[in-house]
Amino acid sequence: MFLKINTDHARFRQIIRGKIKSGLKKFISRGEMIGRKGKDLVSIPMPTIDLPHFEFGDNKGKGIGAGDGQAGSPLGPGEGKDGEGKAGDTEGFHVREVDLTLDELAAMLGEELGLPRILPKGSRNISSVKDKYTGIHSIGPKSLLHFKRTYKQALRRQISTNEYDPENPMIIPQGRDQRFRTWKNKPQDNNSAVIILIMDVSGSMGDEQKEIVRTESFWIDTWLRSQYKGLETRYIIHDASAREVDRETFFSTRESGGTIISSAYQLVDEIIKKSYPESEWNVYPFHFSDGDNWSADDTQKCFQILEERILPVSNMFCYGQVESLYGSGQFLRDLKDRFQGTNPMKDRVISSRIPNKDAIYDSIKEFLNKGY
Questions:
Q1: How far, in Å, CA of 112 to CA of 179, rounded?
Q2: Could you give the CA distance from residue 110 to residue 99 in angstroms, rounded to a whole number?
């Protein structure tokens, strides 16, 4: 019985998984998941999924309760009084919350977008050796003596030789009773990574644009967490100046002001130098803005910081331009002009234009489909 229930439950989970995958583009464009994210689960409303259930049928005038009355008559006192409305003739709308782990969501995202597995490049994927205790041996150094196993062995010996006295339970281990922990050298990859999410919160970025950034950031973070065991995320917001914030502030802040993009890039450089050496970390900066910068001179300063400090130590640099009524969009045009042709850093710069929420799906694919 339990085996059949487990089989039915697994089949139902597969149906749900198929429903979510088929509508993944719709779910990606919705920002409500950000607020619904718990420690490991995300709840997704699924209005078309209903669990099997029993319904009462027509008993054809037979059986208990088959007296006078019409279909729809009140079944108890105080129900259905005159003048309190009419019964409807349409089905109710049912929404069921389906919980999925972030790993399941990441797997679906990778399958639907055709994202490759990320292979850390060069010295960022250094192999190291980790000692793991795997067993017990009769010889070894005193520092690895296993006291509990040693005394158990001494007790067995004394019982088998009739030396153990229950009235005087004294256990004296001998050399042959000693047991020691043993270990194996287990190779492991130090493939830790950091995402640095940067968002323009200046006056030209409206609530809709900021919501697009937060939604796309959520999915990028979810995918990269499935690729790296030791992923960290840092959050930067900027207008005319930049500052690092926590996740909650990043996903909820409402600010205004001018735009000096170089302030954010300088902060990114400082964070990388202080905490993420190139030999040990895979670095992924993602910058989202409407492309409106204070001046052409500051834009050139941004490119200089990118070429000399950020790109040489990053797997890639991603720039997403969110369309805005008040943003000029010039930064994206300048970025493309700079990183093309013979520029040696051009392959590490990936840009994407995001006109609305529906474009989030394709933007994520643009950023991640190279597997850097």
A1: 53
A2: 19
CA distance 253 to 271: 21
How far is Cα 233 from Cα 194, in angstroms, rounded to an integer? Answer: 6
Phi, then psi, of 360 in degrees rounded to 5: -60, -40
What would the two tokens of residue 342 be? 């013979």
SS3 129: strand
Domain of residue 143 covers 126-188
Termini Cα distance of the chain: 48
Residue numbers in the chain where pLDDT is lower than 70: 1-27, 29-100, 119-131, 185-191
The C-alpha atoms of residue 164 and residue 81 are separated, in whole angstroms, by 85
* Cα(87)–Cα(250) distance, integer angstroms: 48
**The pair of three-digit structure tokens given for residue 174, joined into one six-digit string:** 């001998």
Report yes or no on 89 lying in a domain. no
Distance between CA atoms of residues 203 and 258, nearest Å: 7
Q: Tell me how many domains the chain contains.
A: 3
User: For the whole model, what pTM was predicted?
Assistant: 0.64
